[in-house]
Hints:
Layout (H helix, E strand, L loop, with lengths): L1 E5 L11 H15 L3 E8 L3 E5 L2 E7 L7 H18 L5 E5 L14 E5 L8 H13 L2 E4 L2 H11 L5 E4 L22 E5 L8 H11 L7 E5 L4 E2 L2 E2 H13 L3 E3 L5 H10 L2 E3 L9 H8 L4 E4 L4 H4 L7 E3 L4 H13 L1 H18 L2 H17 L7
Parallel strand pairs: 1-2, 1-5, 2-4, 5-6, 6-7, 7-8, 9-10, 9-14, 10-13, 14-15, 15-16
Antiparallel strand pairs: 3-4, 11-12
Helix pairs in contact: 1-12, 5-6, 5-10
Amino acid sequence: MKIVFVCNEYPPYVISGGIGVFTLTMAHGLVECGHDVTVLGYGKNSGEWSDGDVRIVILPESTIRKIAWFINRRRLYRWLKQRAQAGQIDIIEIPEYQGMLPFRFPWCPVVVRLHTPFVAERQIIRMLEKRTLAMHRNWIAVSDWIGRETQKKFGLSSSSMSVVYNPVNSCEQQQGEALAGLPKNFVLYAGTVSDRKGAFVLAEAGRLFLDKNSDLHLVYIGSLIIENGRRADETIRQILGKKLVNRVHFTGPVHHDVVIACMKRARVFAFPSKLEAFGLVPVEAMTCGVPVVYSTLHAGPEVIDDGVTGLLADPYSPADVAMNVMRLLDDASFAAQLSKNALKAVKERFSLQKSVDKTICFYKSVIFGKKIIPK
């Protein structure tokens, strides 16, 4: 099968982040199963090259004020149209994020994967996302929750929809080295450092669990967002106060394999996100053998079986987040059992092969017009 993924976040140009990491993982998984995969986007680093057997095509990005959004999407459309008409594409997959293909496309099927629950701030982007979903009604949702939420948010329904959890590679395949200077004993957060992702409530919780563990540190990996005129690290340092501020560390964004290496060294991985469609990072932490504290909201219960494969905490309650982190810190045997259970669950529910098989079955059902059940 000849497959094109539309993605503007393919590594290394975005060195950590959900859609880009997903696309890289899925593209290579499909190639290993014998499919032909191209990743198409636009950006400053335009050109064509190969990432192993995955073909990467980056079109020139327009920056013309007020009309760049149209020019860039039109370039994608024309590139796809030319290849589809020539029989070089069997199916196209696009994210709903940013509304990359808001045009009718009759030359081959288009599948939209629902990745994000966030509502775009710019009105034009919200319009493009809704139009993309309206034009292409075959959807893959990365969780049952995001499927329901997308239909509610945009007032649209799909022609056909399948829930396919994001895949994760075994951490044994990642060969990166942890950052130099990491403390020996730390709780780790990885992702965009923002209130919406739970970074600030974790800092509030940190006032409790750091105070009770004098040798424990809190490490944040990820980009620092500016909110209410202040950068995230400044807000977190203020939350922790003078007594604890020397035990919080910010690395900024790092390469994905480095994140994995840092996970392997952490005592606990905590990600009490307030809004998450799936949460690939907690699942990656599960593969690394580190016990995980995730969120009770949205897709959290689909990812973590509370008390079995990890712990779920109320992301609006610092006390609940702290209690769950301390439960793992204080009971090593319980934490180890959760990690063991999590590794088994990842293999059964979130393996790359399972995600590839379900994706290909959905592609075939779209192309041939009949439901196909994965083996």
